[in-house]
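User: Predict the complex with magnesium ion.
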Amino acid sequence: MNITEIFGCEVFNEAVMKEKLPKETYKLLKKTIHDGKPLDLGVANTVANAMKDWAIEKGATHYTHWFQPMTGFTAEKHDSFITPTEDGHIIMEFSGKELIKGESDASSFPSGGLRDTCEARGYTAWDPTSCAFVKDGTLCIPTAFCSYTGDALDKKTPLLRSMSALEIQALRILRLFGNTTAKRVITTVGPEQEYFLIDKKYYDERKDLIYCGRTLFGAPAPKGQEMEDHYFGALKPRISAFMQELDRELWKLGVLAKTKHNEAAPAQHELAPIFSTTNVAVDHNQITMETLKKVANRHGLVCLLHEKPFEGINGSGKHNNWSMSTDTGLNLLDPGKTPSENAQFLLFLAAVIKAVDEYQGMMRVSVASAGNDHRLGGGEAPPAIVSIFLGDELEAIFDAIENDTAYEDLKSSKMKLGVDILPAIPRDNTDRNRTSPFAFTGNKFEFRMLGSAASVADPNIVLNTITAEILMQFADELEEAHDFTTAVNDIVKRTIKNHKRIIFNGNGYSDEWREEAKKKGLLNLESTVDALPVMIEPKNIEVFVRHKVFSETEIRSRYEIQLENYAKIINIEALTAIDMVRKEYIPAIIKYSTTVALAVNSKSVHDIPCRTEIDIMKKLSMLTDIMYDKVAEIESLDRKASELAGKERADLFRKSVIPAMAELRRAVDEAEKITSKKFWPVPSYGDLIFKI
Ligand code: ADP
Ligand code: MG
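Assistant: Here is the predicted structure with magnesium ion placed in the model:
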């Protein structure tokens, strides 16, 4: 197989456009893609027709506007290309209008009250900056999804808006530094995706995995991840075959899948792509998650994307590597080679630091979900407190700037921006701290709080917007300054002074840090329910409205949707737990106890003591009593919750249902430890994690 040939073979990319489109059309389309120029209908018709012919060659019969509603997943409604002719035949047609805009019944997608049922329609609009592709016989056209009143109902619309907000402000700064060549600033993202693979035959026997994507019960296996023998370990043949096919499928769709390896937990793996424009990275991550599941199925495996499929074993995240670049290829978070480049680098760096400190609550909100609460609030990588890791070199440089002292690697007596040349910052040294939620890794930031199942859009919408805000403040100040270099120096110095509380290079998991962070006034929002109200604080609404990323109505609707979503997830988990305990665990334990009781009977006839049997029966009886009562308690809480809405409902789930479920789990797991494996109704942790 020739990989260079299959790469992107299912994508209507620039090379295909160039080949299939008339020269003039291609030029106009490129202008739309690169400069954001609107496309006229004549051009769209030509593009649509070429796209259709190409897709049919690839075996497509249908097209779909592929969009990302607020469920966090992708949605597609397929229409075939067929159009009837007068003589009873059909032709395959696809118009520019159909390419550019689609109509969709939006009533079943979450809108948080944005759309009343009488105006249930939404529309989808082509995003020409992300390439169309053919998947399973359908031409997929990446689109944005809005209500008829123009409110965003998806994750792509605000993401594109946030990218443009950042671009406007970053260009202002670049012009001030005398950069006249850069026409565009784009944000780039490389998301590293973690996931678990388990055998489908065990998955099918666990309702919790089927309904909730994670195990609600399960005693730990004798072995966990303590031997650290899985991380970067040799791939088992079955996993290797899966990964090979996964790579091929992703490459065909133009996804730059680059690195694959076993992760820390047994049965856990990771895939990292080469970074791309944020918007494309988000789309590609959606394709990746979908492909992971699809390919796993073909290998008799199931891919679990949940943040915490197994208790007591590392959960899965998605590291969001993020930076800003010009269209001329300059990475704005790359330390430069000249004094001026270095001053510019430090200014952009300072902007990100200030942004993350001032809007740390929004950073936390951007990764909040019921699933991710198991990682962030659960004493696992990384903590729920947002902090920034800079590395020793940068910290020393910042110290020198803040205190007007010499930086030891420099000849000059003082560290002066725009005068001194920074030493090369070694990349290897920057990434030692794996506990940091937001780490500077040489020429980009790595945001590690995102959950494995989440859309990459949310954290980037926030990162782009808050960075745009601070760049705007800096640009406002610098445009008024008499002496530019001094002004840059002042801003960087002031930013370090005012925002150094967010910089932390130590162990993010330690209790001392939690204490220290509290003293510094950093937020520690342990659960989604604690975090979400941050969204509707006036300061946060203002920043999104100011940069035209969200309207206030859009923010409030998203707040409602997220609360609702949280409650729905815990509700499903509660109902699944009740179902499993009543219909599987309790009956199985009773059956086992009956067998033990029979043993007692037959032994007693011969006066043989039955200490073990009786002890087992007593313990199991006590545990099933707890289960029985807890299930009733959860059921009644659930009924109570159904009468509530919004924050109150979410609060009840968080404060009462979750603790009750934890107690229920403890009883079930205790029982599992003393029940014969033959009688246990579901596969064990050992089966799930090690038998693959
Ligand atoms: P690791 O974190 O495993 O040491 P790297 O730091 O090389 O590996 O890259 C991790 C991820 O960061 C990759 O997906 C890579 O493409 C991405 N990345 C590298 N440079 C950038 C950048 N400028 N912007 C966004 N992502 C980047
Ligand atoms: Mg990394």
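The chain has a mean pLDDT of 92.
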